[in-house]
User: Fold this.
Amino acid sequence: MANHVFGKRIARLEDPRLLTGQAQFIDDITLPDMLHAAFFRSDYAHARIKSIDVSAALKRPGVVAVYTAKDFGDFWKPGPLQVPPPGAIPGAVFNARTLVPIAKDKVRFSGEAIAVVIATDRYIAEDAFADIFVDLEPLDAVTDLEKALQPGSTLVHEDLPSNLAANVKQQRGNYEEAKAKADFVISKRIHIDRGAGGAMENRGIVIEWNERAQMMTIWATTQAPIPLRNSIAARLGLSDSQVRVITPMIGGGFGPKIMTSQADDVLLPIVAMWLKRPIKWIEDRRENFLSTTSERDQLHDSEIAFTKEGRILGVKDVFYHNTGAYDPYGMTVPLNTQTHVLGSYDILNYYTEVRMVFTNKMVVTPVRGAGRTYGVFVMERLLDAAAHKLGMDPSVIREKNFIRPDQYPYRTGITGQDFVENVLDSGNYPETMRKVKEMVGYDRLVKEELPKLRAQGKHVGVGIVSFVEGTAVGPYEGAKVSIDAGGKMLVATGISSQGQGHFTVFAQIAAEQVGMSLENVRVVTGDTGIFHWGAGTFASRGAAVAGSAVHKAAVMIREKAIKLAARYMQVAEDQIELTGGKAVVKGDPSKFMTLGDLAVKSNPMRGVVEPGVEPGLEATAYYGPPYGATGQGAQVMVVEVDPDTCEVKIKRLALVHDCGTVINPLLLEGQVHGALSLGIGNAFYEQMVYDENGQLLNASLMDYLLPMATDMPAKMELGHVETPSPLNPLGMKGVGESGAIPTPACFMQALESALPEYALDIMDAPLSPSKLFHLIKAAKAASH
Amino acid sequence: MSQLKAIKVTVNGVGYEREVEPRLLLSDFLRHDLGLTGTHVGCEHGVCGACTILFDGEPTRSCLMFAVQANGHQVTTIESLGTPDKLNPLQEAFQEKHALQCGYCTPGMLMALTPFLEKTPDPSEEEIREAISGNLCRCTGYENIIEAVKLAAEKMAARR
Assistant:
């Protein structure tokens, strides 16, 4: 009788407007008298600004204002750290150099804003760039991670003694002792590069300052509406209550839209107050590549010490992490790397050291995977080298080292991005591996199918890897659930949405508790005027953390409704059932009150209320985990290579994933599909290519290759294991980043397996047909 | 300031007479001059396909055309397909198969697929992949989009 919607494959509530072009995205918002902003940006990656002359631009018809750093006076200052420094880690060195809103004396990356033009339309604003004259003294660009730390290198930040942004050392056990006991030690130098978030919608902001009402309304494509609201209000000297940040529909996040305190959100609000007209800024694709954050490269010198039976005794990993020209996002990405090298494995001796380096490149903040991909890549490549040395199947060496199901909670001794020890809460790692092998028929694949294809002259290979995914980290999220007189439910939470289906899954979680059908539920995310406590959408935490808060609030509403209904209908509480939007007496369907009736009764307009009772059918709840929940999985890929063209076709792709309790299997599959496609991009197609002058050579979709439909395998085979997390009431773990984490490592293993005659030993990601060609060529030359 | 040109464009069967600058992109004309914001802009390089509309029935990137080039022509946009209360079979299939997540590439996808399904009412998977190879999607990995097109083809055949 009760409507059960949790755990069901339900089509999304938000789709009809999206499908018909009737949803509201940032550039769909038009306000009367609105002006348009455009940022004049540096071509040089590293240069001193000697003078800026905007006088000609000011004369252009349609240009209302042009601002440079000096026009902002004391308002101009480096932004706050988005993420605190790693003070929790002993011995950590961190040099904070946060983004400046607009370049003042120096530009430090190609694309850094130097001036902002405000005009009556975007075309004229961009025309005005031709009228702006900047006298720049070019400096040598710092682009190479190792050279950047050598004495005598040009300095990105001249007030620091070097380009070292941070140094963090962590360890567990004693690696050197473990190494001494090992039968084998293998060292590898591994270089991994990632790239842009690549959302189909670029960033944007619309700001309206209502002078009469003394109220600012901001629409923004942000993953962090509440921090954005707080920072803007503080900067303008306004009360938090005078600034409302609303997120419209957002066309994809993938990480970079978490970043705040950039040129647009720092400068345009004050400009809107000065000009007393609404301001709109919409980023274009080239700007997105140049000056929206992304991920960059890491260079690892790593070592694995193991026994001849294939047991890992220890791992050492010393790496450089490229943070770009500033480090506003702290150590989030490299800390994720440090925790994720350990992966799914029981490794008692581990030494990890990161040297974070400033370069004259765009700033790094997380992109789907957020540092985990690098860590997993290093470990999986080391394991492959060890397996090869021992003549062991790659899956077997992993099976020998998995954390066992009876070892949870598994303490790693390594501090993660949330500044607490990374503890693996639950899982069944042998089972995800077993299941993926069963799904693809791994033994038959390896022993029969692939050898048969190879005998026909095909260059086919298989990769098999495992990975962990740290998710659902704190600090906390909150939610408000309320039912109105019309029986309609509002679910509001502070995080924002970028397409992952929050409008449906949060409705499912809440409706489940009160027996209401989904079409009566309205979910609002990312509107600080409706809910204003919380951190944001990142680290695959929306469903597990905000969803847990939604659940808690919905349970409170349920209890309140039952209590009220029992009192009004004069029955015991355990005789009340919530179903079909009503509170019904069990066994007597004619005795009921609708949830709307109860909402009215709980909010009297006259009379006396009981002390201590809150009005309405409304509840607010918060949830914060002690540490993040850890998802995990195993992946198999079969590839076929054409050694002449170096084209690689993915013939099979299978992923088994454990994200604990599943809210909506249909949406879960979508998340894994999307993550896999980004992972494929990071394996073979996507790389932001900078030259030695810090010029981004491929700042367009023509040359930065996002995977197309024809690059994907015919089918992504998905399997699930469900080990509920003990950390939240519903047992959920995140899944948003899943497939983005293991795919590059799996791809490289599969390629090596497809071309064994070349003994490729791929220690570089991403590849591309051209890089593969050169690898094969070098291998051929080496063998002669 | 360049001279304005008078144009007459039929969009979704409705005639519009406007004066526009020669350099005004068709995508901006549709979105901002006519308020038809369903057509989205992802790159303005002609690569991503989010801005795909039909120009005299042919799928075309509106970011690579000027509004003046549409003078005297027929433009069809996403707004001509179903409505939120009455989705057309292709849109229904997209919803059932979870073929959209953020929805930003979706209008372009649907406009590329609409004439494709008319020409190829019983498409193979390979044909579907080719048909959407000019539309980038970052969210779905394309798999559910392909499933949706197969389902739409079935629905449309059943209704004939």
About this structure: The mean pLDDT of chain A is 96.
